[in-house]
Amino acid sequence: MQSSSLTLHNQHACFGGTVGYYSHFSSQCQCEMRFSVFIPPQAQNGPVPVVYYLSGLTCTEENFTAKAGAQRYAAEQGLMLVAPDTSPRGETVPDEADAWDFGTGAGFYVDATQTPWSRHYRMYSYVVEELPELIAANFAMRADRQGIFGHSMGGHGALVCGLRNPQLFKSISAFAPIAAPSQCPWGQKAFTGYLGEDKTLWHTYDATQLVKTHAQPSRPILIDQGTADPFLTQGQLLPEVFEAACKEAGQPLTLRMQPNYDHGYYFIATFMADHLRHHGAILTASALD
User: Fold this and answer.
1) What is the pLDDT of residues 176-213, one digit of tens each?
2) Is 173 a catalytic residue?
3) 8 A C-beta contact, residue 20 and residue 10
4) How far apart are alpha carbons 155 and 37 in whole angstroms?
5) Cα 46 from Cα 78, distance rounded (Å)
6) Is 229 considered catalytic here?
7) The model's pTM
8) Which residue from 264, 254, 238 is spatially nearest to 177, judged by alpha carbons?
9) pLDDT over threshold 50, residue 2
10) Given 85, 111, 224, 229, the catalytic residue
């Protein structure tokens, strides 16, 4: 039964299931937060595994839901899909109006410690604590079978949330993630603004640093990266740095460099089936019982 704490804004039939857009007041972010949910047809017969998708810079809960073509493959695999917004929003929420890569739409999936960001910008705790609890309370999902993936800034978030919370997220993948944020301009700007100058705190939100101590040898990670991605050549993504850290730590990683693909949703849609099959194979495996 749906909790009264959720407001349903729109709902659409889709591949035998439904896509719904919801909002609620977030205790972590201290504002209204929005997310989308695809409920596959299998949920009519009982709880199903769930995969969370974290979007990239400037996105909302709608970009992935409308553009990625994910519902078809989620329906095949019997997976629920949840896509939250990328940051807190609202009149009382601080923003950096002249920066598209910091502030609104750019929460970077960290819990900010610096003023004025620390009151609202708590996307890490929102993703790993509040949102899973909310989904479990309101939808027919398997709390013991949850996965996470994302794109760009959201790929960074998925790697960090997955590596730090293996008991919660059993499967991880990413499209063109910001894989070593402490070493790239986007990450350095965001971490300095949200977290301050203490790089030991930065490393708790850096997948390349985390994998050194949080490797999961029994859980392979899948990453797709386009070779024509302009942010790859600008040194913002650094998949090769993460790959080297995984090899050293014994973390299974499949890094696929996809010729001619860029950073956008045509790239994501092309390889979405592989990612949801990756999650489906893990989350429906009897070994998790």
Assistant:
1) 999 999 999 999 999 999 999 999 999 999 999 999 99
2) no
3) yes
4) 19
5) 11
6) yes
7) 0.96
8) 238
9) no
10) 229
> Which residue among 26, 36, 87, 152 is the active-site one?
152
170: amino acid identity, one letter:
K
Count of CB atoms situated within 10 Å of the CB of 83: 29
Backbone angles phi, psi at 108, to 5 degrees: 60, 10
**Residues 24, 120, 151, 263: which is the catalytic one?**
263
Q: Whose CA is closest to 93, among 33, 156, 36? A: 33
For residue 79, count other CB atoms closer than 10 A to its CB.
27
Q: How far apart are CA 16 and CA 265, in angstroms?
A: 23
C-alpha span between 136 and 47 (Å, rounded): 10
Would you state the structure tokens that stand for residue 266, as one six-digit string? 């045509």
Instruction: Retrieve residue 248's tokens.
Output: 């050293």
Concerning whether 101 is annotated as a catalytic residue, the answer is no
Q: Is the pLDDT of residue 286 over 70?
A: no
